[in-house]
Write a structure and sequence with these properties.
Elements: H1 8-13, E1 18-19, E2 22-23, H2 49-56, E3 60-63, H3 73-82, E4 87-90, H4 102-108, E5 114-117
Parallel strand pairs: 3-4, 4-5
Antiparallel strand pairs: 1-2
Helix pairs in contact: 2-3
Length: 128
């Protein structure tokens, strides 16, 4: 984003981070690692990813949590509702720890998803 002309502050304002404590917010300042400070948001604390997706309406979500299934059907459906081509990156590995499977992402979004993963998934067919 910076290479496209935004300031670092503007770019950071467009990125919402969630960690083990939930959304990175200003009220968590004293408990955040220094690298998270520039991403703090002036929003209410929440650990609910669906709530964040509904509030923020992101173009994409990137998972690196190693929490299998954390991108639920409801979250993927909401991403498809708010985006013509939702971006979903389930980057955790091994596959057993991926936030969602490729098949789920494609099935739930009726194939409209731009999906990437950190692990290989089995081949599958949709409407084949």
């Amino acid at each position: 984003m910076v290479e496209q002309g935004l300031t670092e502050e503007e770019a950071c304002a467009r990125i919402y981070l969630m960690d083990i404590g939930g959304l990175v917010t200003k009220s968590r300042y004293n408990n955040l690692p220094d690298r998270h400070i520039k991403f703090m948001k002036d929003m209410k604390d929440t650990k609910n990813l669906l709530e964040v997706v509904k509030t923020v309406e992101p173009d994409g979500i990137i998972g690196a949590s190693t929490v299998a299934g954390s991108f639920t059907e409801e979250i993927i459906s909401e991403m498809a509702r708010i985006n013509q081509r939702p971006i979903i990156f389930a980057l955790s590995n091994p596959t057993s720890k991926a936030e969602c499977t490729a098949e789920d992402a494609y099935r739930i979004t009726n194939g409209s998803v731009l999906f990437a993963s950190g692990s290989p998934f089995e081949n599958f067919e949709i409407d084949g």
